[in-house]
Amino acid sequence: MTGPAGRVLLLEAERMRPVPSGSTARLIRQTIAILAQAMADRELAPRAPAAGKADRVEDYAWLRANNVGPDEAAARVGVSAGTGRRHEHEIKENPKC
Fold this sequence. Notes:
mainly alpha
């Protein structure tokens, strides 16, 4: 088939052809997918840890005062369970936290 109709068919066939694995178009699609996944993960991630130790201790103390378990409170504040236990001692020594 020649003429405009033939060229249209060739262009459509070219568009429908699978993209080679190492092609630029495929790499762009993969990059977009990776960035979209990273953004989704960032939106679903827990809040960032508090900026300083005093803020973390204060946040931990507030969570513990509101009946949150020690391990979960430590995870929410962004510290390890051992650091959470150290925060427990600081809270007992200084109840103003």
